[in-house]
From TrEMBL:
Gene Ontology cellular component annotations, sorted alphabetically: endoplasmic reticulum membrane; extracellular space; secretory granule membrane
PROSITE patterns tied to this protein: DOMON
Family of the protein in this entry: Belongs to the copper type II ascorbate-dependent monooxygenase family.
UniProt entry tagged with the keyword Endoplasmic reticulum: yes
Organism the protein comes from: Ptilonorhynchus violaceus (Satin bowerbird)
Subcellular location: Endoplasmic reticulum membrane
One GO biological process term: norepinephrine biosynthetic process
One Pfam family matching this protein: DOMON
GO molecular function, one term: copper ion binding
This protein's UniProt keywords: Copper, Disulfide bond, Endoplasmic reticulum, Glycoprotein, Membrane, Metal-binding, Monooxygenase, Oxidoreductase, Signal, Transmembrane, Transmembrane helix
Name recorded for this polypeptide: MOXD1 protein
Membrane topology summary: Single-pass type I membrane protein
Cofactor dependency: Cu(2+)
Gene behind the chain: Moxd1
Domain DOMON: start-end pairs: 1-61
């Protein structure tokens, strides 16, 4: 049945019943209910379902509902963030596909709020082109809230194996000079995300002279409780195939640059910042190398704790197109790729605007982004 709660959390039966039971089954261990509902019911007691993150709240009692109404669920409850209209894409991959892991080795995580740790790796697949078809996070058990995001950068191919011997804190005055050669992001993962499967006609190219040989893995550790003595071995698994796909994948980064000039005042229920990828920028980036433009097939929207909503706007010939991607219910702990229903062409001379909405009502100091 269709129920809703008021501001006092009292459960009330909705006079407009918008949930329809499709089927139900029960065995000795499970009760399964399948139901459907219109995305927009025009009922003020219902929440419209969009492509934004949906927080699904569940609760149950071991006894069926009696005449007096629902039994209180006690501790049998929980919540899960999902993107109901943009589920994770699972491609049936051969279990025999080769893979390699890029993982940190016993990294001592400092007892401070935020740490960026960088480690250089050498891609083991060389001399022949292959395509990476899937990337999976390998998060050390118990560290699911510690590892906030992982970036993989392509570095200069002129380095030697001595750069592989040690990791170091990123963006640090004493970090190795070799880290400065790593500028191009080739993959990104963020907290709450599952593995990323490339579409069947696309892969991340490895193995040729133009492909990454040395890569830098940057892991952002989030340790707000200043826990001491943490040792981490997280990283990424790259699954690849010799059966080549039609197109090579890349990453375009757009948004707000991390800068002391970007700050958010405290006590703000709503504060909007914009990052502009200008037409001059895209003209220079794509004009000579990709005059026919690039095809966007997935978007990862990324923000931190103050983030409440993100919108990726796209302009062509000065006219705004349909939003490239958006999440009006952003969840810091659920940062998952959104696969576009249709690939979007971005041409030289287009504009991209990343609109970030923040809330700092619970903060008394400036937020430096």
């Amino acid at each position: 049945q269709d129920y809703f709660t008021d501001e006092n959390r009292v459960l009330k039966k909705d006079p407009q019943q918008d949930y329809h039971l499709e089927y139900a089954m029960e065995n000795s261990t499970h009760t399964i209910l399948a139901f459907s509902r219109e995305l927009h019911t025009c009922d003020t007691n219902d929440k419209s379902i969009t492509e934004s993150t949906v927080r699904v709240i569940w609760a149950y009692h071991h006894k069926d509902m009696g005449e007096a109404g629902q039994n209180y669920h006690g501790s049998n409850r929980g919540t899960k963030s999902l993107r109901l209209l943009n589920p994770e894409r699972e491609e049936v991959l051969s279990a025999s596909l080769p893979f390699f892991d890029l993982t940190n080795k016993d990294v001592p995580v400092p007892d401070k709020d935020t740490t960026y740790w960088c480690q250089m790796f050498k891609i083991p697949v060389q001399h022949e082109k292959h395509h990476v078809t899937k990337v999976e996070p390998l998060i050390q058990k118990g560290h699911e809230n510690l590892v906030h995001h992982i970036l993989l950068y392509q570095c200069s191919s002129n380095l030697n194996d001595s750069v592989l011997d040690y990791g170091h804190e990123c963006y640090h005055p004493n970090m190795p000079d070799s880290f400065l050669t790593c500028e191009t992001v080739i993959f990104a993962w963020a907290i709450g995300g599952e593995g990323f499967t490339y579409p069947p006609h696309v892969g991340l190219s490895i193995g040729t002279a133009a492909d990454p040989l040395f890569v830098l893995m940057e892991v952002h550790y989030d340790n707000p409780s200043y826990t001491e003595g943490l040792i981490d071995n997280s990283g990424l698994r790259l699954i690849y195939t010799p059966v080549l796909r039609k197109y090579d994948a890349g990453v375009i980064e757009a948004g707000l640059w991390v800068s002391l000039f970007h700050n958010i005042p405290p006590g703000m229920p709503e504060f909007v910042s914009e990052g502009h990828c200008t037409l001059e920028c895209l003209e220079e980036a794509l004009g000579a190398e990709r005059p026919a433009g690039i095809q966007v097939f997935a978007v990862l929207l990324h923000a931190h704790l103050a983030g409440r909503a993100i919108r990726m706007r796209h302009f062509h010939n000065g006219e705004e197109q349909k939003l490239l991607a958006y999440d009006d219910e952003f969840d810091f702990n659920f940062q998952e790729f959104q696969y576009l229903k249709e690939e979007r062409t971005i041409l030289p001379g287009d504009n991209l605007i990343t609109e970030c909405h923040y809330s700092t009502v619970d903060r008394i100091r400036m937020t430096w982004v």
